[in-house]
Amino acid sequence: MVNVCILDYGSGNVKSVKNLNKYQIKNLFIQNMIKNNVLSIGTNNINYSLNKKDISQVKKSYSKTLEEIKDKSLSKKKLKID
């Protein structure tokens, strides 16, 4: 099991894991959130302007993105970020 913690607007509170440093994690997070149709600079704020469909999209994007970060952190291959 790999714990990834993304807490802050910057990469200061992102912790490095086995195969990824904190900058790679933040970059991978932002790229994958955008790929999954959620614009993010490292944080998302859920508020009353979002409807259930929007919230569902954010949840799905987080799920896919964090799963990919987990997979890449466990991979034996060196990470190449696009």
Q: What is the number of beta strands?
A: 0
Shape: elongated
Helix content: 40-55%
The gyration radius over C-alpha positions equals: 13 Å
Cα(first) to Cα(last) distance is 26 Å
The structural class is: mainly alpha
Largest sheet: none
**Count, helices:** 2
Poorly predicted regions are 1-11
Strand percentage lies at under 5%
- One letter per element, helices H and strands E, the order comes to HH
- What is the typical, i.e. mean, pLDDT? 77
Structure description:
- The protein has helices at residues 22-35, 52-74.
- The longest helix is centred in the last third of the chain and has 23 residues, at 52-74.
- The protein starts with 21 loop residues before the first helix and ends in an 8-residue tail after the last helix.
- The chain is mainly alpha-helical.
- The protein is built from two helices and no strands.
- It has a domain at 22-74.
- Residues 1-11 have low confidence and may be disordered.
- 45% of the residues lie in helices and 0% in strands.
- Helix 1 crosses helix 2.
What is the element layout, followed by pairings?
Elements: H1 22-35, H2 52-74
Helix pairs in contact: 1-2
Supply the key terms.
mainly alpha; 2 helices; about 45% helix; elongated; disordered N terminus
Can you summarize this structure?
This protein is mainly alpha-helical. Helices cover 45% and strands 0% of the residues. The chain has a domain at 22-74.
